[in-house]
Specification:
The complex is a heterodimer.
Chain A (H helix, E strand, L loop, with lengths): L2 E14 L2 E14 L3 E5 L6 H8 L7 E4 L2 E4 L2 E2 L5 H7 L4 E4 L13 H11 L5 H14 L5 H5 L8 H13 L5 E5 L7 H18 L2 E6 L2 H7 L2 E6 L2 E7 H7 L3 H8 L48 E5 L2 E4 L5
Parallel strand pairs in A: 3-9, 3-10, 7-8, 8-9
Antiparallel strand pairs in A: 1-2, 1-4, 1-5, 5-6, 10-11, 11-13, 12-13
Chain B lengths: L31 H10 L2 H23 L31 H37 L1 H16 L2 H12 L3 H9 L4 H15 L2 H8 L4 H37 L11 H10 L6 H28 L6
Helix pairs in contact in B: 1-11, 2-3, 2-11, 3-4, 3-6, 3-7, 3-9, 4-7, 5-6, 7-9, 8-9, 9-10, 9-11, 10-11
Classes of the chains: A alpha/beta, B mainly alpha.
Amino acid sequence: MTNILDVQALKTEFRRKNTLIRAVNNISFTIKKGSVLSIVGESGSGKSVTMHSVLRLIPSTGKIVAEKINFMGRDLMRLTEKEMRKIRGDQISMIFQDPMSSLNPTIKIGRQISEVLLWHHKANPKEAKERTIRMLHEVGIASPIERYNQYPFEFSGGMRQRVMIAMALIGEPRLLIADEPTTSLDVTVQAQILALIKKMQEQNKMSVVLITHNLAVATMMADEMIVMYAGQIVEQATKAEFLNRASHPYTVALLGSTPKLNMKERLQSIPGQPPDLKNINLEGCPFVDRCSAKMERCSREEPPAVQLSPTHRIRCWLYT
Amino acid sequence: MGEFTIPVNKNIDSGGKPPSAEHSDKTTRRSYFGVLWRRFKRNKISLISLYFIVFLIALAIVGPLILPFDYKTMDYTALYQKPSLKHWMGTDDGGRDMLTLIIYGLRNALIVGFGAGLVEILIGVTIGALAGYFGGRLDNILMRFVDIMFALPSFLLSLMLVVVLGRNLFTILLAIGLTSWAGMARLARAQVLSIKQVDYIEAARSLGASNSVIIFRYVLPNAVGPIFVSLSFNIPGAMMVESGLSLIGLGIMPPMPSWGALINIGSRFILSTPHLILYPAITFALTILAFTFVGDGLRDAFDAKQSD
């Protein structure tokens, strides 16, 4: 399988007055065509910023540096803003965490979806309307013709997320970035939305990046997993390797702190706080303060990337 | 580590026919403006005021066409007359029909009020939206200019503009509009700044919307609420300035009547023929009050915290 996205040495920094925040610190990863990649990590670990950087959608205080961000043979770092705009929504789309605030309350649902096609000159208004109605049906919205003319406030949270998905997929993108798409939905709706994303992914043969802090969601959907901590990728593996041979102490701790059904013992937690990205220790491993297996060299030397298998890579001194 | 419980259903083809629970909520057909109107209607005083303003506008349009008198012709056989069947509001010191003068005054006040409001919106919202949307240095430059406009006494500035531009309806509304948009600019900037943070802006950008689409389709329509509310307070404000200019003799050229000029003349005869000041002053006050009440109603209607 070929790669649809190849990110090499990506760094995203935010400068505020005199502090430099390294939100994403030198990470590299690839996504295969038609596969699902899950990025997991705590809040502030840089998972969202990573994917926003790929689309070059970060606040103006931020700066993106990368060796390359190769998307289907084009280096996104070298494109102008105008060329980038043609890629967004057409080749790469994004859905967001909060469906309640992700739709413009003043535009009818149908217009809002079909406008994406018009921005990219992919259809005339009449075709756009037909395709939108078909798409609304695809994403599981009943009576799409009536729904076409309704406003966002007439939709429930789960329905709005379906609309968001329709809006993201109407341009038939090759890559969908789902940034915590189910975090603000209740559990039954969550399952439906995930099933819908999976269905659309298989149907359109597109690739999906799923950003989440919910390990169950991540492993249900993913072919491959990335675990991020303090702006770095600490472990990268296929789903099977992740579930059976998780190796980095952070990943192990994360899996250990996941509640399971019929669990008798007390739920484990990871001691300490996520690191403050403002004064992060660049010398050693960012996880050192909370690590249960730390060694002396961990706080002095940056851990190397260790290849455990062709598809399994971690950054830890334990496995050198 | 081997076993990992997945609490969600692995069945992946439920997307086509989701459970009926989500669909069962019957939504009645209503539009964005329908909801606004319903909320607005709840405030009876605002509703009555709105009807009153509509009536005034109709009067200003139809009145001059059907009135038996005009505002120019003096009648020296009928000076200072008390209200009668022929002259419902009496006559002034030139024997002109008071009702006719008030209706022409109303027409002029409305033209100046709405015209100046439009000028304020065009300039204020453009500058405020640009500053808020693009931020950075542009924001700094534009907002310092706004600060200067805000600091200068606008009435004095209007006066000077009137002197320079001349004294007809159009120049007066321009003179008022050009000097009082600073508040509107600040409001528009604040609105744009807060709306810029909402998720749907980022969502639109992530799907390839251009800056102009985001400004005109996403930001401004969501900012209109407070801007309209502010407008409904600025229109009577502009009317007051127009009357103020007339009061000191720098308003619309006589004999074209203006409320300010009528009040000025009436004040000279306040003891002998009080109706000369009473009628214009009362209609003036009622008009201003009606706009203010409509503004209150609009503010409540646009308040998202209210239930629909």
